[in-house]
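[step 3/7] fold_predict: job queued, chain A
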Amino acid sequence: MTKIASGKGMEGPALLSEVQQKQVDDLKNLSGRALDVQYLKMQIKTQADAVALYTDGAKLNNADLRSFAAQALPAVKENWEAAKKIGSKLNLSNTNNGDDLLNISQEDVKK
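[step 4/7] structure written:
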């Protein structure tokens, strides 16, 4: 992607956004299950956003970007499914059943 972007005179961000940096900082203050849950929630959302981005990218007019997105999309979807599977194993979706120690709802997972 970097090669394609630089060939088009574009450049990606060199640093984390303010939101991304806050997420990293917030993780530094957590440990144990709270860290696992927060990290997985972030990964599930990030991977869902990536699937949407690459799906849109696979429809672009620019042939290079369209091809890149289409080729990468299966791996991006696989990563999203893996994150959701891990989240399920950490009980992120089993709310109000007595097993979910942090009372994480499906709505929280989607955020």
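[step 5/7] annotate
The chain is about 70% helix and 0% strand.
The radius of gyration is 17 Å.
exit 0
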